[in-house]
Amino acid sequence: MKHPVKIKRAYEPASAGDGYRVLIDRLWPRGIAKQDLAIDDWNKDLAPSPALRKWFDHKVEHWDQFQESYQAELREADQQARLRELIQAAQGGKITLVYGAKDTEHNHALILAAELKRLY
Prior knowledge:
alpha/beta, MarR family transcriptional regulator, YeaO-like
């Protein structure tokens, strides 16, 4: 049975059904106190590399190339190991990827969730 992987903006409230919540941004979301985010882990290393993040800059016209580049980063051996560690940390339960981007249709959480689902 496949376990669900969800994504949720950091500005949405946590819920009991979220399971293991992990912040997947390199930068802390603006305006949120650490005690208010209700995360189990902050895994900065699963975020896109700083160079890729800066290049993308949340520009929709860069989306297709960003997806390809980030998928390539996630397929590297060290990233695959981090993904497996995340799955282990969730102990076979739900995982909610928490991100701060405003754009809900063009962000790295979508790509990361797809990669996790492939492994889970």
